[in-house]
DNA sequence: ATTGGCGTTGCAATCTTAGCGACATTATGG
DNA sequence: CCATAATGTCGCTAAGATTGCAACGCCAAT
C-alpha cells in the first residue's frame, strides 16, 4: 500500500480491480447498477469494466444477464495464490495450531471487511477449511480488529464515516476506543458470541501486512496468555 | 472467454491484468523493461501500470527497484480463491485420487503455460501440494496438452507461431498432430521422462473451462484405462 | 571515462473514456 | 393486462486521461 500515487496512476486499472474484487466477494450474481452503487461508480463505467472482465473470462454473465466469477478466476486464483506464498507459508503452521481444539482462521483485510484464506472449526479437515468463507465485517471479527488497528485513525474514520458500524452500536467513538485497546495489547480479543461466551483472539502476521491469524471458541481469561503466545509464535513463523 | 469484445473494452484494464499476471508468475523480481519485452508492451506503459499496482499494494518494489508481489496479492488470492470455488470443489476429490500412489495435479492454462493450483507427488501431504508450482510450459505437460486441445487450431497456431516449442523439436506441425491425437482420445497422455518411463495422463474438468486434472508417474499401458476412468470420474465430480 | 543498460518522468498530441440520453428488456404492482 | 420502475446495453461527442518520445539520473560493466 504505497501511500503516494505515482506520476500517472492508471485510474481504469484501479477501478477495474476494485470492480473485480467487488465481483469476487459478491455471494451471488450481481448486476452492474448494484455494483456501481456499492462502489460509488457510474453504472455505465461499471458495465464496461464488467464486460471487459467478461471478455477476459474473469467474469461471466448468467442467464439473467447478471455477472459472476468466470473460468478465468481460476487462473487468477492459481497465480495469485502462488505469487503470494501465504498458503505454503501458513498451512503447516495453522495445522499445528489445530491441537488447541479451537476454530483456526487466517484472514486478510479488504476495505472494511475480512476475507478468509482459511477458516476451520475443530473437527473439520484442514483441506476443507481453505477458501471456505468469503467476507465478514471487520469490526465484528478478531482478525479484522487486529488488522484495522494497524492502520491510522484517519483511515479508519474514513472507512466508517457516517454509518452504522457492525458490532459497535455506539458508532465511531466506540470503535476507536476498541481499536486503541487492541493497539495497547498488541493483539485483538473480541467477544463473538455473548450467549455462548465465545471469543476470538487474533494477532497480525507482520507489520503493515494484510494478514492475521486467529483462534476462536471458548477462551476463558486464564487461557488467554498461552493462546496469545501460540498465535504470536505462529505469526512470526508465517512471517513475511 | 467471451470471443467478441464489448462496445468500449477498457484496454488499460486488459493490459493491467496482463501485467499483474506476468508479475505473479515471475519467479523472481522483474523490472519494467523486461516485463515489457515479455508482454510486447511499451516500457513506459508497463512502468506506470506497475506503479499503479504498487499503489494498490498488489505489487511492491524491492531494494533494487524491481517489482514483486506485494501484500495486496494476499487479498487477491483470498478473494479469487473463494470466488472460483475450485479448491473447495476439487480438494476432496483430489485427496481420493492420491490412493493411486502417483503424482496428482490440478492446473489451469494461461497463454502457453500451465499454472498449478495443486501438485503433490506421493508422500507429500495434501496441504503441502497447494500453490506449490508456478508455471510450466503447456506443451510439455499433460494438463497443458489436455487444455490446449480444447482450443481451436487457429488459437494454438497463434500462440506458438515462429518459435521453438517445448517438447516438440519438429515445431508446430508436430504439436498440431499431438493435439489432434488428444482430441481423438478425449484425454492427454504424454511422456514426461523417457529415461525413467514416466507418463502423465490428464483430462479437462469441463468443456471450455480452464482447469484439468492429471496423474503422473510410472503408468504402463495396461494401467492406462483405469486411470483415465478415475480421472474422468474425478473431473465430473469437480465439475462446473 | 565510456558505454549500455536500468527505472522514471515531463510534455504535448492523441485517442480512449465519461456519462448523458435512449433503447429494449424484465420485474413489480396495481 | 397495462403501468411503472428498474434493469443491461450502446451510440454519441466533449473532455480528459493516456501514450510514448525524449531526456534524466543512476548503476554496472567495460
How many domains make up the coordinates of chain A?
Answer: 2
**Poorly predicted spans of chain A:** none
Q: Classify the beta-strand content of chain A into a percent band.
A: 15-25%
Oligomer: homodimer
Overall morphology of chain A? globular
Distance between the termini of chain A: 15 Å
The level 1 CATH classification of the largest domain in chain A is Alpha Beta
Cα-atom Rg of chain A, whole angstroms?
A: 19 Å
What is the H/E order of chain A? HHHEEHHEEEHHHEEEH
In CATH, what is the homologous superfamily of the largest domain in chain A? GAF domain
Topology:
2 copies of one chain form a homodimer.
Chain A: H1 11-25, H2 32-39, H3 43-55, E1 59-61, E2 67-69, H4 72-83, H5 86-97, E3 103-110, E4 113-120, E5 135-137, H6 142-148, H7 153-159, H8 172-185, E6 188-193, E7 198-204, E8 211-217, H9 221-238
Antiparallel strand pairs in A: 1-2, 3-4, 3-8, 4-5, 6-7, 7-8
Helix pairs in contact in A: 1-3, 2-3, 5-9
Chain A binds a DNA duplex (30 and 30 nucleotides) through residues 6-8, 10-12, 31-34, 42-45, 47-48, 51, 64-66.
Throw out a few tags for this protein.
240 residues, DNA-binding, Arc Repressor Mutant, subunit A, 44% helix, alpha+beta, homodimer, two-stranded antiparallel sheet, 6-stranded antiparallel sheet, 9 helices, globular, 8 strands, Beta-Lactamase, 19% strand
What features would you describe in this structure?
2 copies of one chain form a homodimer. Chain A has 240 residues and is α+β, with helices and mostly antiparallel strands. Chain A contains 9 helices and 8 strands. Chain A folds into 2 domains: 65 residues, Arc Repressor Mutant, subunit A, CATH 1.10.10; 155 residues, GAF domain (Beta-Lactamase), CATH 3.30.450.40. In chain A, helix 1 crosses helix 3, helix 2 crosses helix 3 and helix 5 runs antiparallel to helix 9. The model of chain A has no long low-confidence stretch (mean pLDDT 92). At the A-B interface, helix 1, helix 3, helix 4, helix 5 and strand 3 of A face helix 1, helix 3, helix 4, helix 5 and strand 3 of B. Chain A binds a DNA duplex (30 and 30 nucleotides) through helix 2 and helix 3.
Amino acid at each position: 500500500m504505497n501511500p503516494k500515487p505515482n506520476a500517472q496512476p492508471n485510474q481504469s486499472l484501479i477501478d477495474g480491480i476494485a470492480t473485480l474484487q467487488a465481483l469476487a466477494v459478491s455471494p451471488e450474481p450481481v448486476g452492474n447498477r448494484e455494483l456501481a452503487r456499492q462502489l460509488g461508480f457510474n453504472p455505465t463505467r461499471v458495465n464496461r469494466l464488467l464486460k471487459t472482465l467478461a471478455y477476459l473470462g474473469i467474469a461471466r454473465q448468467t442467464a439473467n444477464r447478471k455477472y459472476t466469477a468466470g473460468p478465468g478466476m481460476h487462473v487468477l486464483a492459481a497465480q495469485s495464490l502462488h505469487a503470494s506464498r501465504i498458503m505454503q507459508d501458513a498451512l503447516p503452521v495453522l495445522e499445528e495450531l489445530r491441537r488447541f481444539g479451537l476454530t483456526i482462521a487466517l484472514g486478510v483485510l479488504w476495505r472494511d471487511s475480512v476475507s478468509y484464506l482459511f477458516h476451520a472449526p475443530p473437527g473439520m479437515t484442514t483441506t476443507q477449511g481453505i477458501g471456505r468463507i468469503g467476507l465478514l465485517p471487520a469490526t465484528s471479527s478478531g482478525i479484522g480488529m487486529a488488522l484495522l488497528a494497524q492502520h491510522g485513525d484517519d483511515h479508519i474514520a474514513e472507512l466508517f464515516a457516517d454509518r452504522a458500524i457492525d458490532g459497535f452500536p455506539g458508532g465511531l467513538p466506540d470503535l476507536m476506543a476498541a481499536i486503541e485497546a487492541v493497539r495497547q495489547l498488541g493483539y485483538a480479543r473480541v467477544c463473538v458470541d455473548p450467549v455462548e461466551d465465545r471469543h476470538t483472539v487474533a494477532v497480525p502476521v507482520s507489520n503493515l501486512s494484510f494478514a492475521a491469524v486467529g483462534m476462536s471458541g471458548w477462551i476463558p481469561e486464564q487461557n488467554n496468555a498461552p493462546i496469545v503466545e501460540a498465535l504470536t509464535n505462529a505469526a512470526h513463523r508465517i512471517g513475511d
